[in-house]
Design goal:
With about 290 residues, the chain is mainly α. The chain folds into three domains: about 110 residues, Up-down Bundle (Four Helix Bundle (Hemerythrin (Met), subunit A)), CATH 1.20.120; about 60 residues; about 80 residues, Winged helix-like DNA-binding domain superfamily/Winged helix DNA-binding domain (Arc Repressor Mutant, subunit A), CATH 1.10.10. It is about 70% helix and about 0% strand. The chain is built from 14 helices and no strands. Helix 2 runs antiparallel to helix 3, helix 5 packs across helix 6 and helix 12 crosses helix 14. The protein starts with 9 loop residues before the first helix and ends in a 5-residue tail after the last helix.
């Protein structure tokens, strides 16, 4: 067996490794997943991950053009792939690649939004959609020469995406402005850019209000939690509150019931919590004073 030539490019080495990883048939995949879920077989886990590295590389290619390194995108995608394997449930009838695709793409999606502009900004659903749509729409409107959007072009993009023109202009500025040091003076000998930035730190009143709201929500959840049965609390805690949630199979063995029954109990308990928390303010308002 020949030894691959060393490469200084991590992406090149990665692509060479993934080409050597064998693909899995449906039967092989099901067997490896069973070994990983039931026996925590690390060898099976490794084979599953290696067999889906092509999926990560293919998804990374979809995010080219945002000024980010392929190796960084792949690293984020690999984290998404691992998280997908930790939460995958074959009982849903999906192939692992179909399920993992969402996790891999979501990991890269968040990475691009966070690091492809000089300024970090809130990741609202509207801004996410605008971020990924604006580049293509701008190229269509301005042509190969590029350049800034005119007022008419901005209005066209806003109408097509269902957002305000101000949002389009804001996103274009964020995507095109060069990085700037906060220590650099605005004018020679003058104050720095950082010194002129508005202080958006929450006021004492705002922090106090947020703390009181948090305490109130915790009290509501505490009350709702006490209304669940011991088994419901255990299943919800093991499935949603752990860093590494227990598998349905683990809880099925603990309570000597089927995996599907565990899923039903979990869904019912979460629904009960939602209903109790939503109805708590009305119950508190109707409660007699001093009760």
């Amino acid at each position: 067996m020949s030894t691959p030539r060393a490469s200084s490019d991590p992406a090149t080495s990665y692509f060479r490794a993934l080409r050597e990883a064998p693909l899995l048939s449906g039967e092989d995949e099901a067997e490896l997943i069973r070994r990983w879920r039931d026996n925590s077989d690390e060898g099976a886990r490794t084979r599953l991950i290696e067999a889906h590295l092509r999926l990560v590389a293919k998804t990374a290619a979809q995010f080219k053009g945002y000024g980010l390194g392929t190796a960084d995108l792949i690293a984020e995608g690999n984290l998404g792939l691992v998280r997908a394997l930790e939460t995958f449930e074959p009982e849903r009838g999906l192939r692992f690649s179909t399920y993992a695709q969402w996790w891999v793409r979501a990991a890269m999606f968040e990475y691009v939004l966070k690091f492809s502009t000089p300024v970090n900004f809130g990741l609202s659903a509207e801004r996410k959609r605008l971020f990924f749509k604006l580049r293509g729409l701008k190229a269509r409107l301005t042509g190969p020469s590029g350049g800034s959007l005119s007022a008419a072009d901005t209005a066209t993009v806003a109408a097509e995406l269902g957002v305000k023109p101000e949002r389009v202009a804001e996103m274009e500025r964020l995507m095109t402005q060069p990085p700037r040091s906060l220590d650099a003076p605005v004018v020679e000998g003058g104050a720095s850019f950082g010194e002129l930035l508005a202080d958006d730190t929450p006021s004492v009143e705002e922090r106090l209000g947020e703390r009181q709201e948090l305490m109130y929500r915790r009290e509501l959840l505490k009350h709702a939690w006490s209304e669940l049965t011991e088994r419901e609390r255990d299943i919800v805690a093991e499935r949603t509150l752990r860093d590494k949630p227990l598998r349905l199979e683990d809880l099925a063995q603990r309570y000597n019931i089927s995996r599907e029954r565990v899923r039903q109990i979990e869904a019912s308990a979460l629904g009960k919590l939602k209903t109790l928390v939503a109805g708590a303010p009305a119950r508190l308002a109707a409660k007699p004073a001093g009760a």
